[in-house]
Write a structure and sequence with these properties.
about 350 residues; about 20% strand; single chain; 8-stranded parallel β-barrel; alpha/beta; 11 helices; 3-stranded antiparallel sheet
Length: about 350
């Protein structure tokens, strides 16, 4: 494990006992938490993106704000649903955030997971032939990737008062290194292999649409191996990055035990998008026990980046303590060094 960060779902709304977490609270707390993690040397702050839900749906302003208030931490998404996106507008926004952050953007995109509404991307103005919208997502991704690569896409107007000429004009702003910081979120082996052939990094999903009786970490490690094999077979240069996400809670205080003591469970089998799927386990234990458990997780060992899913509703102080405990007592035993200098 070379890097670790947090993956926040950004939930907001009623908290019980008359308390309310607003959308503004959620975003401002996310900025404060990222600043604290930057000071600790944590590697990344990543955000789930869901539309028509009380979660982060417009991540770019949030990522830009975090980038402007931090120095080292990677900012990213896990993942943006490409079915909902204008590819060229997303390319402009991504380049802007990448430039503001001085190359610290890790932009995870994919078909996305099921939303709270039916075919919500049609409300955004897009239609798909495939029932799940996979064709639309990859069509949008193709154009997005061409824009990120700096391809000319629109004919220059020779009569323009802002500069004439001829030829195809690329999207601006353009960030030259952004192409290498694009990730594809994959929930199965085929999608991971496709990402490898495309030459983008891999964010392995919190679930896999496979349930053959084997443990989740084994299925996920095989997915990562298949991705890397496809990358190499396609002739891409360099080493791609791979990430997995886990719910991990070092129990170091009475409050930790109150919230997560006894919460450790095994893999779960469920139905998503009509397919039997395997969901990863939750780890919650004293740090020494946690280290031994995580060393036996094949996917954590296979990936270079681990994302900790955090209970953002519990506030900045609680989550920062969870992250700090992981950084201090657990992560070094898994090979982590950190960015703090």
């Amino acid at each position: 494990m070379e890097r670790f960060g947090t993956l926040s779902f950004g939930h907001y709304g009623p908290l019980g006992n008359g308390r309310q977490l607003t959308a503004g609270d959620s975003m401002l707390q996310a900025i404060d938490l990222a600043q604290g993690m930057d000071d600790l040397g944590v590697d990344g702050a990543y955000f789930r993106v869901h539309h028509f839900a009380r979660q982060q749906a417009a991540p770019m302003p949030l990522l830009a704000a975090i980038a402007a208030r931090t120095r080292r931490i990677e900012v990213g998404t896990g993942v943006i649903d490409m079915r909902y996106e204008n590819p060229l507008y997303l390319a402009e926004e991504a380049a802007a955030v990448d430039l503001i952050s001085d190359g610290r953007l890790a932009l995870g995109v994919s078909r996305g997971s099921p939303e709270t509404v039916t075919r919500g991307y049609e409300t955004f103005g897009y239609t798909a032939e495939d029932e799940r919208g996979a064709d639309l997502a990859r069509e949008h991704f193709d154009l997005f990737l061409r824009a990120v690569e700096g391809e000319g896409l629109a004919e220059r107007d020779p009569m323009s008062p802002f500069g004439g000429g001829s030829g195809l004009q690329r999207i601006e702003p353009h960030s030259p290194g952004l192409r290498s910081r694009i990730w594809w979120g994959a929930g199965n082996r085929d999608s991971a292999e496709w990402a490898g052939r495309m030459g983008v990094n891999l964010m392995s999903s919190t679930l896999l649409t496979s349930a053959d009786g084997r443990p989740f970490d084994i299925l996920q490690a095989e997915q990562i191996d298949a991705f890397r094999a496809a990358w190499s077979a396609a002739g891409h240069e360099g080493t791609p990055r791979t990430s997995v996400s886990r719910s991990i809670f070092p129990l170091t205080t009475a409050e930790d035990h109150m919230y997560f003591g006894g919460r450790q469970d095994g893999d779960q089998i469920g139905i998503i998008d009509g397919m039997r799927s395997t969901f990863g386990k939750t780890y919650a234990a004293e740090p020494d026990e946690l280290v031994e458990q995580l060393k036996n997780d094949a996917a954590i060992a296979a990936a270079d980046t681990l994302m900790l899913t955090i209970p953002s509703q519990l506030g900045v102080a609680f989550n920062l303590r969870i992250v700090e405990s992981f950084a201090k007592y657990v992560a070094p035993a898994l090979g982590w060094v950190g960015t703090r200098v």
